[in-house]
Amino acid sequence: PTHQYACVECGKRLTTRAALTQHRARAHAADSRKQECPHCQKSFVLPSELKKHIQRVHLNTQKSTTTSLARLDDLPEIEDIF
């Protein structure tokens, strides 16, 4: 694939505009926009990444399931973050 989109901050080249946007959010976001995991204080820029982290690390799930999502939604501190 042709790498058409270059990051102006680091020069990394990506194949889609969406990939570039996601790269910039993950790699170059300001610390003030990052959200900490309430269990271990690891920081994430994207709420979806924080949610996946909690499911995999703190709820011990490998894949997103209806059961694990229901358990995650029951945690009040998570609802406040999103």
From TrEMBL:
Residues 5-33, 35-63 form the C2H2-type domain. Keywords: Metal-binding, Zinc, Zinc-finger. SMART domains: ZnF_C2H2 (SM00355). One of its GO terms (molecular function) is zinc ion binding. The keyword Secreted does not apply. This is C2H2-type domain-containing protein. It comes from Caenorhabditis latens. The lineage of its organism: Eukaryota, Metazoa, Ecdysozoa, Nematoda, Chromadorea.
